[in-house]
Amino acid sequence: MDAVRLQNELNLALNRGTESIPYIRALIFTGAAERYASLPDPAPMEALGHLKEKLKNDSEDALWELFDTAVKAIRVMPGPSIEFVLINGRTYCTSNTTEEGKT
Q1: What integer pLDDT is reported at residue 41 of this predicted model?
Q2: How far is 42 from 45, CA to CA, in rounded Å?
Q3: Does pTM top 0.85 for this prediction?
Q4: Which residues contact 96 (CB under 8 A, 6 or more apart)?
Q5: Which domain holds residue 30?
Q6: CA distances (Å), 61 to each of 65, 81, 85, in order?
Q7: What is the pLDDT of residues 10-30, one digit of tens each?
Q8: Domain co-membership, 32 together with 60
Q9: What is the pLDDT of residue 97?
Q10: Rounded distance, CA 49 to CA 40, Å?
Q11: pLDDT of residue 75 exceeding 80
């Protein structure tokens, strides 16, 4: 809705002919930013595709790159356990308890 409003304001400014160049330039850039703000950013999907290709080769470097990309925080909890907070907000908890014959 803001993009349409900005486009209308730009059209009016151009029709009047009395507006300053910096004002018209600002309307153009702001309108373009509003129009393209709703488009998805292809960069993360492209990076994910490259990472998938690396993971197909069972590369240890790719596993660490995935870990660095996906994990936002690591918390050492009492118990002992480790909590991983992912970039999407999900939390995974692992337990490091040892029992007879288990690690």
Answers
A1: 67
A2: 5
A3: no
A4: 79, 80, 81, 82
A5: 2-37
A6: 6, 25, 21
A7: 888 888 888 888 988 998 999
A8: no
A9: 46
A10: 16
A11: yes
C-alpha distances out from residue 41 to 45, 47, 67, 89, Å: 8, 11, 21, 19
pLDDT value of position 103? 34
The C-alpha atoms of residue 60 and residue 62 are separated, in whole angstroms, by 5
User: Domain tally for the chain?
Assistant: 2
Tokens 């595709």 belong to 49
Determine phi and psi for 40, rounding to 5 degrees.
-70, 145
The secondary structure of 33-93 as a DSSP string is HHHHHTSPPHHHHHHHHHHHHHHHTT-HHHHHHHHHHHEEEEEEETTTEEEEEETTS-EEE
Q: In this structure, are 30 and 68 located in the same domain?
A: no
Q: What is the pLDDT of residues 79-102, one digit of tens each?
A: 778 888 887 788 888 875 444 333
Same domain, 48 and 91: yes
- Would residue 75 count as lying in a domain? yes
27 and 48 share one domain: no
